[in-house]
Amino acid sequence: MSIPQQVTKVHATGNDFVVYADPDGRFEPTADEVRRLTDRHFGIGGDGVIRLAHPHDVSDLSSAQMDKCRTGGAEWFMDYRNADGSLAQMCGNGTRAITLFAQSRGYADSGEGAEFRLGTRAGVKTLVALGDVDGLGRGVFRVEMGQFKRGELDAYEVSIPATIGSARGTFVDMGNPHVVAVLSDGTSNLPDVDALDLNTKPVVAPVLQSDQNVEFVRVDKVDASTGQGKATMRVHERGCGETLSCGTGLCATAVTLCAKTGVECWTISVRGGVLRVEVNEAVSTVRLTGSATLVGDITLL
Question: Is there a catalytic annotation at residue 265?
Fold first, then answer.
């Protein structure tokens, strides 16, 4: 078995992961092992598996990616896999979960204001520990999510099998691909966000060869005078299905809402909690702030 005997369950606003440290580079998981661990009936259960490893111990990384980790000051790498065993370029909630785990094991500095540079397949991300934050919870981290690329607004049609209606969606690249459908702006005749059946995978047209995460969003409040907005989001993640939260999906949502409303700071509610997303439209960057929670250590038999 290429999984250590001791693993840990962590979640970040309900996006849950099986995580473990591999400082010696001996435990790179197979796709079958990931699927077994994340199975919610026969395994531990989770939206994915995260191995905390040094960049040179992650077999799929190119020399250019390892160089980025080195120049970006990232000693540790988030080796993330979706629940179906596939590799993932990026997971915003996963960065907070693995950083909290790294702090608990002494691989990262802890305490309010502590910084951690984390390598990912979408580049080096910098996290800052904020402690407890009113409205966001305990164990809160701010993540500099880096550059985004947004496509033409409403260029895609999004539908859900067995659900009447469709919506227009906007492509956003957050290091992984997203299509964001805003249901409250007059471009949709789908049911309200809370009434959607996301047990089935949404259909996006034109088809994206890479597949994509799909976010469904309702704008709840916009205050142009303060530059603040509130929204509600649900997400269907490729390789996982519906999850209670998706960090890159929250960022893609805020990027889309910013383009539609001009408001750059959003408080977004998902089924797993509340997070804050700040868009800097001028330089095409985005920042995500939310909590993470250690659930428990598990010994595999």
Answer: no
In a domain, 268, yes or no: yes
26 is known to lie in a ligand binding site = no
Start-to-end Cα distance in the chain: 11
pLDDT digits (tens, 9 = 90+) for 113-168: 999 999 999 999 999 999 999 999 999 999 999 999 999 999 999 999 999 999 99
- Judge if 153 and 279 occupy the same domain: yes
Respond yes or no: is residue 91 known to be catalytic.
yes
Tell me: do 109 and 156 sit in the same domain. Answer: no
- Confidence band, pLDDT 50/70/90 cuts, at residue 47: very high
Structure tokens that stand for 229 in this block:
């907005």
Catalytic residue among 69, 246, 251, 258: 246
Does residue 197 share a domain with residue 101?
A: no
Q: Looking at 69, 91, 240, 251, which residue is catalytic?
A: 91
Label residue 195 exposed, middle or buried (CB < 10 Å: 0-12, 13-18, 19+). Answer: exposed
- Is 280 annotated to bind a ligand? Reply is no
The pLDDT, as a whole number, for residue 2 is 85
Residue 1 included in any domain: no
| Structure token pair of residue 274 | 């509340």
Same domain, 10 and 140: yes
The verdict on 67 and 137 lying in the same domain is yes
The answer, yes or no, to whether the previous bond of 202 is cis (omega within 30 of 0) is: no
3-state secondary structure of 48: strand
Residues 161, 100, single domain; the answer is: no
pTM of this structure: 0.95
Range of the domain at 199: 149-283
The number of helices, as runs of H, and strands, as runs of E, in the chain is 4, 19
Q: Is 213 marked within a binding site?
A: yes
